Amino acid sequence: MMRLVGAVILFIGFAVMAVGLAFAFQSFIGIYQGITADPLAQSAGTDDPEREAASEMLRWAMVGIGGAVIAGIGAFISMIARKRRKRAQRFAAK
Fold first, then answer.
1. Do residues 84 and 22 lie in contact, with contact meaning Cβ atoms separated by under 8 Å?
2. Residues 6+ away with beta carbon under 8 Å from 48
3. Residue 41 lies in a domain
4. Which of 20, 29, 63, 64 has the maximal Cβ count within 10 Å?
5. Interatomic CA distance for residues 22 and 16, integer angstroms
6. Is residue 73 part of a domain?
7. How much is the pLDDT for 42?
8. Rounded alpha-carbon distances, angstroms, from residue 34 to 31, 55, 57, 58
9. Over the stretch 47-74, which tens digit does the pLDDT of each residue have?
10. Could you tell me if residue 78 is inside a domain?
């Protein structure tokens, strides 16, 4: 049971990491799409779109780091469950 809980937490962590990575790359790609759409930067938009994109990338990277922490906890729980199961099998065999 504990191993299943660890695997579920690990899966959730990987999903959160993937979402953070996808949105961070989407912001990164948005910089270059903006450059190709308006190469002389004559749009009436924001003053510094690169700075805004960088802050958005950092925000989503933090989400990804949070997912990595969750995945690490799930892996640790699964590892502990596996060790406990092997120890129980070893003592049951004696």
1. no
2. none
3. no
4. 20
5. 10
6. yes
7. 63
8. 5, 16, 15, 19
9. 677 788 889 999 999 999 999 999 999 9
10. yes
Classify residue 40: in a domain, yes or no.
no
Structural element, H or E, at residue 54 = helix 49-93
Q: Which amino acid is at 38?
A: D
User: What single-letter amino acid sits at 19?
Assistant: V
The token pair that represents 84 in the structure block = 């406990």
Q: Is the pLDDT of residue 21 over 70?
A: yes
Domain span at residue 29 reads: 2-33+49-93
Q: Is residue 19 within 8 Å of residue 63, measured between CB atoms?
A: yes
Burial class (CB within 10 angstroms; exposed 0-12, middle 13-18, buried 19+) of 13? buried
Instruction: Select from 77, 76, 65, 59 the least CA-distant residue to 16.
Output: 65
Written as six digits, the tokens of 74 are 């799930």
Cβ–Cβ < 8 Å for 82, 3: yes
